[in-house]
């Protein structure tokens, strides 16, 4: 790519350029100024294969940057519009896409080794229940409590299936208890930005993929994560808005008794888990990390307390589910009305007003909280004369 920005891409925060490459490919490009940089999003199809590339022009150094791009990318079709929102993300609205795949966001992430990083996030209509992060030392009873919850309310809760490099235990199933993997593939997936968080626990690698949480949440269930304290800290720092619960043993002796009685680990592993347990119990006291601490002494009592705290959160934060969430329309064109509202022209001659005033979450996961409202069927509006 050359050093200079083409004249046609300057001086505009929202700009669309149609580009024809050759007879077999077609592309569409937007350039959006954001601080000292201009983000160029270029979608193209070549021999039936779609790609979306992001390049950045740094106005200060007058040089082009190819950033590391994380997250699930949109599949590009007939073009897109771009608009800068709240000075913190760029919204991309795809044309010729179903509504549930039409709204995407591009966000700047923390630099890695001095290099620019951006991440994609798919926009979702309506809100979702907050995930629940459950942490606590090995053997405290996290798995037991989570299983009880899932058994009693199978349609309400879903488990985030983590990846791990540890070997499966007897009766553990791949894809159910964990995605069992090897270190090389997991490290590659981490580099590719597929993980919300990861940590080295008891000398194995564990991590929550973005997909693991989002598939549960997309299905309308409340996602439950069983992760260690380091993982909880990473999730706290991420865009995922969750409730954090720490499960404590009634005593260290009881924890050791449970670990031994479970009989899933060799002595060396038990010792390692007990050493780490002391550190976790200390770390859990960090201010602002956990919202709730439950002591798992009598199992039924602890389980009731867990259900109570989840119920009280549900009452305090009632869900706003858009009635239009499952609307299946093909967005044929997009008009940016304000930085919070877009007018979506649909293939059946209807128009929808997309409202992005109340976004929640974001890259590298989904961006939720979008809303859509139907507008009178097209008439004069085709010519742009409808008042919003
Ligand atoms: N950070 C992080 N920790 C995880 C994840 N999945 C499991 N863990 C934690 O890893 C630790 C070991 O889990 P596991 O090997 O199943 O042993 P157990 O805790 O003794 O049952 C526990 O503290 C889990 O909470 C994950 O995706 N991320
Ligand atoms: N409240 C409790 N009282 C006695 N034993 C318990 C209690 N909660 C769990 N256990 C037992 O302790 C062991 C460890 O529980 P588990 O759920 O595997 O812990 P974690 O998932 O935190 O490692 C299991 O054998 C489980 O049956």
Automatic annotation (TrEMBL):
Origin superkingdom: Eukaryota
Domain annotation Guanylate kinase-like: ranges: 129-311
GO MF entries: ATP binding; GMP kinase activity
Pfam entry (one): Guanylate_kin
Protein EC: 2.7.4.8
Enzyme class, UniProt record, top EC level: transferase
Coiled coil ranges: 252-280
Keyword terms, alphabetized: ATP-binding, Coiled coil, Kinase, Nucleotide-binding, Transferase
Entry-linked HAMAP family: Guanylate_kinase (MF_00328)
Protein name: Guanylate kinase 1
Organism: Zingiber officinale (Ginger)
């Amino acid at each position: 790519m050359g050093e200079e920005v083409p004249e046609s891409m300057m001086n505009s925060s929202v700009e669309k350029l149609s580009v024809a490459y050759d007879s077999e490919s077609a592309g569409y490009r937007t350039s959006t100024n954001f601080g000292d940089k201009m983000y160029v999003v270029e979608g193209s199809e070549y021999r039936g294969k779609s790609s979306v590339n992001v390049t950045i022009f740094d106005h200060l150094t007058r040089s082009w940057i190819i950033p590391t791009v994380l997250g699930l990318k949109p599949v590009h079709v007939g073009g897109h519009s771009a608009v800068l929102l709240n000075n913190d993300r760029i919204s991309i609205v795809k044309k010729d896409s179903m509504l549930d795949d039409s709204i995407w966001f591009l966000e700047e992430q923390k630099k890695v080794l001095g290099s620019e990083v951006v991440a994609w996030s798919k926009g979702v209509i309506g809100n979702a229940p907050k995930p629940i992060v459950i942490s606590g030392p090995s053997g405290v009873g996290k798995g037991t409590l989570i299983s009880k919850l899932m058994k009693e309310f199978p349609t309400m809760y879903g488990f985030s299936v983590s990846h791990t490099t540890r070997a499966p235990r007897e009766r553990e199933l791949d894809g159910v208890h964990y995605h069992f993997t090897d270190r090389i593939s997991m490290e590659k997936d981490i580099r590719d930005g597929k993980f919300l968080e990861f940590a080295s626990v008891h000398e194995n690698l564990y991590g929550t993929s973005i997909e693991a949480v989002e598939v549960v949440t997309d299905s309308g269930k409340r996602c439950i994560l069983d992760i260690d304290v380091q993982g909880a800290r990473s999730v706290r720092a991420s865009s995922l808005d969750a409730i954090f619960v720490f499960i404590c043993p009634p005593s260290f002796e009881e924890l050791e008794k449970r670990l031994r009685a479970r009989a899933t680990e060799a002595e060396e592993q038990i010792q390692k888990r007990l050493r780490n347990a002391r550190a976790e119990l200390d770390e859990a006291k960090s201010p602002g990390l956990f919202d709730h601490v439950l002591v798992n002494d009598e199992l039924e009592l602890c389980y009731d307390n867990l259900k109570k705290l989840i119920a009280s959160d549900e009452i305090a934060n009632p869900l706003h589910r858009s009635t239009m969430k499952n609307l299946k329309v093909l967005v044929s064109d997009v008009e940016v009305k304000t930085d919070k509202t877009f007018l979506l022209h649909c293939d059946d001659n209807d128009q929808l007003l997309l409202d992005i005033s109340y976004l929640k979450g974001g890259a590298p996961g989904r961006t939720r909280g979008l809303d859509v409202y139907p507008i009178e069927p097209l008439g004069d509006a085709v010519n742009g004369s409808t008042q919003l």
